[in-house]
Amino acid sequence: MVHEPLAGNASRADESPFVGRRHELAEIRRLLTRTRLLTLTGAGGVGKSRLARQAAETLRAGYPDGAEVVELAGLEDADLLESAVAGALGLRETLRPTGPVLLDHLRDKRMLLVLDNCEHLLTASATLIDRLLRGTSRLRILTTSRQTIGVYGEQLLRVPSLTIPASDEPPRKIARREAVRLFADRAATVRPGFSITADNATTIARISQRLDGIPLAIELAAARLRTTPTDQLLRELDDRFTTLTGGNTTAPPRHQTLRATMDWSHSLCSPAEQHLWARLATFPGGVDLDTAEKICTGNGIERDDIIDLIAGLVDKSILTTHQTGPTTRYRMLESIRAYGRDHLSPSEETTLRCAYCAHYRSLAEANRIDQIVPDQVGRFWTLQAEIANLRVALDSCFTLMHDPTAGLEIASAMWSYWVITGTLTEGRHWLDHGLAIASGSDPARLHALWVNALLALYQGDPTSARTAIKECRALAERAGDESALAFALQIAGVAECDAGDPTKGYALLEEARSHHRTLGDVDAVGLNLYLASVYYSATIPDKAAVLGEELIALCNARNAPLFRAYAQFGVAIAAWVQGDWRWTEAMMRQVAIPWAVIDDRWGLAQFLEVMAWTADARGDDVRAARLLGAADAVWRAIHASPITVRYSEESHRRCAAHSRRMLGNRAYNEAFRYGARLGLDRAIAVALEDERALAATAH
C-alpha cells in the first residue's frame, strides 16, 4: 500500500518561570526509581501540571529515550486517547492499528511518559496505562489526576500547596517561602520592579496564608496589583473570603479557598467580561481574536468590545497569551476553564455551539490542504493549532447539535490533515460516527464515503474501503453527482492497484481523471495525477514521468510549493526506475524542506531512503549506508518499512546488499548505526550535503 500524503505536533508555548517545589521534584525522582507508575494528585489549581512538566524537563537527561509530555485536558472523547498519545509521540499510523503501534514503539524504550490531566478520561487512561506497563519493561509513566488511576502498582504523590510563612517570621525568611516567591514573581509582571521589602513582607505573608499557598489562587490575586495596593488587596481578600467561604464547611479547605478566589476574581470582572469568560471556556485549544469576535458576540457582547474585554481578562490573569508566529492565542488554565463553563447557561451554550460549529465548518473548508494553493503550509498549521477546538465542533455536530451533515463536512474537509499527521484512526472515528447517523445521498455523505474509503486503504483495511466505495458509487449514480462518482472511481482505482490488479486500477484512475477534467476540478485532477504518477512509476515509468511533470507545471502555475513537492517525488521515483539517478536526486533535494516543515515523517523516511539509493549509485558507499541507517530510524519510528512499499522494496534490498558488499560487514554496520544515531534534522542535512553536517559527521 502506498501512503500518499498531500501536504506533527506543535510545541507548548513558553510559560512563566517555575517557582519552588524542590522537595516535590526530589520526591518524584526518588519514587520513579521504585515504581513504574506515579500519579500526582491534588486539588485543582495546586500546580500538578506545572510540576509534572517541570519534572519531565528536570529528569529528561536520566532517560536515554527522553521524557515526553502528553496533554489530555482538551481531549473529550475517550475513543481518541490512543491516537492522541501516539500523535504526541510523533508516531504516524500506517497499516496497523494505533494500539499495537504505540505499544511496539514504547516496548524497549527507557522513557518517562507524562500523561497530564487524566481525570476526565479515567477509565480509558487506566486501560491504556495498564496495557503499556504490561507490554513494556523499562517505561515509566507519570500522570496528573484529581483521582487515582487505579492501576496495579500505582504510587501516589499528593501535591501540597506551596510553603507559606508563619506569622512571626522576619522579612528575609518570608521572602524565601515558595508562596511568597511566586506572588512576587507574578506581581512583577503587572507592576515592574515589585519586590518583597521590610514594609510589605508581613502583608504579603498574610495574603499567601489567606490563599493557602495555592498557586492558581496566588496568580489570580497577584494580577490585582496592577490597580490595587497590597494592603487593599489583603482587605479585599479578607472581606470576600469571609462571605464566600462562610457557609461551606463540607468542602476541603483548599477547595474552598480556590473556589472563593475564583468567585472573587469573577466578581471583579464586569458583566460582559464574565460572559466572555464563560464563552471562551468552551475553547480547549485557546482562541485568537478573530475567532473570538466571530463566535462570542451577541447577547450583551458587541464585536467591537471583544478586544477590550479580552485585555481585561488578560489583566486579571483569567487568560494567558501565547504567540504563534504573527498570531496571538488566548488560553485558560484548566481550572479557570472549568469554572467558566459552569457559568454558561444552557440556552447560551446552545447559541454558542451553533456559532461554534458554523465557524469551524467554514474554517475546515477554508483550510483544505488538498487544494493546489500557495498557502498549504499555513493551512496545515491553522488546523494543527485548532485541532482541539475542531474536535469539540465535531463532537457538538454529532451529539449536541444533531447536525451530522456539518460534522461530516468538517471531517471530510480535513482528510489530508488526517493523512499527513498519521491520525487515520481519528479521521475514521469521526467519519464512521457521522455516517452511522446520517442518511440519504447528499454531497456531504458522498464525500465522507470516498474519504473514509481512502483512509481505510491507508490503514490496510480493503474490506471496509470496498464497502464504502460501492455505496458511494451507487448513491452518486442515483443522485447524478458526477464529482462524487469521479472520486469513487479514483479510490476504486487505488484499491485495485493495492490488490495487485494494476491494469484495472490504471483504467479506473484514468476514467476518474477524465471526469475531473470535464468538471473543471483542477484540485481533483492534481490529486489524481499524483496518485497515478506514483502507482505508474513501478511499471510504466515513462507515463508516470509525463503525469508528474504535468502536475509540477500545474503547481508552478498556481505557486503551490507543498503540493509540488509531492509531484516531484512521483517524478523522482519514475526517473529512478528509468535509471536516471541524477534526476532522481535533483528532484528529491527539493522535497526535503517542504516535508520537514510539516513534519511529514512518512515522506521524510522516503526522502532519506531514496537519497541512500542515489549515494550508492554515485559510488559513495559509506554515505549510502549512513542514510539507510537514518532512514531505518524513521521507518521504525512510524512502524513501517521500505520493503512493504511497492516501488521501493527491490531498490532498498539492492542498495543495502551492494553497500554491504563494497564496505564489508563491519564497516557497513558501523556506518548504518552511525546514521541511525544522527537524529532526523541532522540526517536531512547530511542527505542534502550540508557542509557543516558533513564535517561533523566526518569527525
Please characterize this protein's 3D structure.
The chain is mainly α. 63% of the residues lie in helices and 5% in strands. The chain contains 35 helices and 8 strands. Strands 2-3-4-1-5 form a 5-stranded parallel beta sheet, with helices on both faces. Helix 10 packs across helix 11, helix 18 packs across helix 21 (443-458) and helix 25 (522-537) runs antiparallel to helix 26. The chain is globular, with a radius of gyration of 28 Å. The relative contact order is 0.07. Mean pLDDT is 89; it is low at 1-14, 244-251 and 691-695.
Mean pLDDT score, rounded? 89
**Total number of helical segments?**
35
Globular, elongated, flat, extended or rod-shaped: what is the shape?
A: globular
Main sheet properties? 5 strands, parallel
Task: Please summarize what this structure is.
The chain is mainly alpha-helical. The longest helix is centred in the middle third of the chain and has 23 residues, at 376-398.
Give the SSE layout.
Layout: H1 22-31, E1 37-41, H2 48-59, E2 67-71, H3 81-88, H4 98-106, E3 112-116, H5 122-135, E4 140-144, E5 155-158, H6 171-174, H7 178-190, H8 201-210, H9 215-222, H10 230-244, H11 253-268, H12 271-280, E6 287-288, H13 289-295, H14 306-315, E7 320-324, E8 327-331, H15 334-342, H16 346-366, H17 376-398, H18 404-413, H19 415-421, H20 424-437, H21 443-458, H22 462-479, H23 482-498, H24 502-519, H25 522-537, H26 541-557, H27 561-578, H28 581-589, H29 592-597, H30 601-618, H31 621-637, H32 649-663, H33 665-676, H34 680-687, H35 691-698
Parallel strand pairs: 1-4, 1-5, 2-3, 3-4
Antiparallel strand pairs: 6-8, 7-8
